[in-house]
Amino acid sequence: MLFLLPAYLSENTSISHFSPVIKDYIMQTDYFFVENEKTARKVVKFFAPEKKQSDLKLFLLDKYTENADIKEAQEMMLKGQDFGLLSEAGLPCIADPGSLMVKWCHEKNIRVIPISGPSSIILALISSGFNGQEFTFNGYLPIDKGEKKKQILHLENLVQKTGYSQIFMETPYRNNQLFEDLIKFLSPNTKLCIAANINDPEHEFIKTKTIKEWQKQKPELHKIPAVFVLGK
């Protein structure tokens, strides 16, 4: 079996916010596919502090991984070994490379078990006040300045034409630059929700304002995990 295990969005989140079954599944196997070894060890310790870190067998599964890179682990699964799949934050396989392994499991008739947990994308949407019936997650916007402007205006146009909420992200150290581009290129009356430090009991910041209002109150988002939502 492949357990799709959630990770916390903030290390400061209380363990009481999570289902006890997460710990049960972590204790059930020593074998994990992980996007980042250091983060994965912290997540395992958070949910199951009594589990020996020296027992963990971690296999890297990041955006560069191909099936050939994890062939050893796949052969173990074909022989009956259970594995867990851990994202760096939130649910695996959303803005995360884990789907490679999930797809392989379906092809090999290996059972996939999703475990409930937080998703920054969904939490940002439900906190925005925007359309939660029809929405699109657009991942990361282009780095190139011209392409980024084009995409921002395209998303704004989609909101106005369809009413679909448009969700996107940025690498935390580029959040401030993205915010400056948004308030520069978007129309003054367009509404933007910024959801940062989600699930952090002390530093969570979730606000929906028009671009005109955001221009008067610029948040500090440098190196802070954040999700951006355009809507109406």
Question: Could you please describe the fold and organization of this structure?
Answer:
With 232 residues, the protein is of the alpha/beta class. The protein has 2 domains: 2-114, Tetrapyrrole methylase, N-terminal domain (Cobalt-precorrin-4 Transmethylase, domain 1), CATH 3.40.1010.10; 120-231, Methyltransferase, Cobalt-precorrin-4 Transmethylase, Domain 2 (2-Layer Sandwich). It has helices at residues 21-28, 37-47, 71-78, 99-107, 120-128, 145-162, 175-185, 211-214; strands spanning 2-5, 31-34, 57-60, 83-86, 112-114, 135-140, 165-169, 191-196, 205-210, 226-231. The strands form 2 sheets. It has a 5-stranded parallel β-sheet with strand order 3-2-4-1-5, sandwiched between helices. Strands 6-7-10-8-9 form a 5-stranded mixed β-sheet, sandwiched between helices. β6 (135-140), α6 (145-162) and β7 form a beta-alpha-beta unit. One of its GO terms (biological process) is rRNA processing. Residues 26-198 form the Tetrapyrrole methylase domain. It comes from Chryseobacterium takakiae. It holds the Pfam family TP_methylase.
Write the layout of secondary structure elements.
Layout: E1 2-5, H1 21-28, E2 31-34, H2 37-47, E3 57-60, H3 71-78, E4 83-86, H4 99-107, E5 112-114, H5 120-128, E6 135-140, H6 145-162, E7 165-169, H7 175-185, E8 191-196, E9 205-210, H8 211-214, E10 226-231
Parallel strand pairs: 1-4, 1-5, 2-3, 2-4, 6-7
Antiparallel strand pairs: 7-10, 8-9, 8-10
Following the backbone from N to C, one meets helices and strands in this order, namely EHEHEHEHEHEHEHEEHE
Unreliable stretches covering 5 or more consecutive residues: none
Tell me the major beta sheet: 5 strands, parallel
Which range best describes the helical content: under 10%, 10-25%, 25-40%, 40-55%, 55-70% or over 70%? 25-40%
Keywords: Cytoplasm, Methyltransferase, rRNA processing, S-adenosyl-L-methionine, Transferase
GO molecular function: methyltransferase activity
Protein name: 16S rRNA (Cytidine1402-2'-O)-methyltransferase
InterPro entries: 4pyrrol_Mease, 4pyrrol_Methylase_sf, 4pyrrole_Mease_sub1, 4pyrrole_Mease_sub2, rRNA_ssu_MeTfrase_I
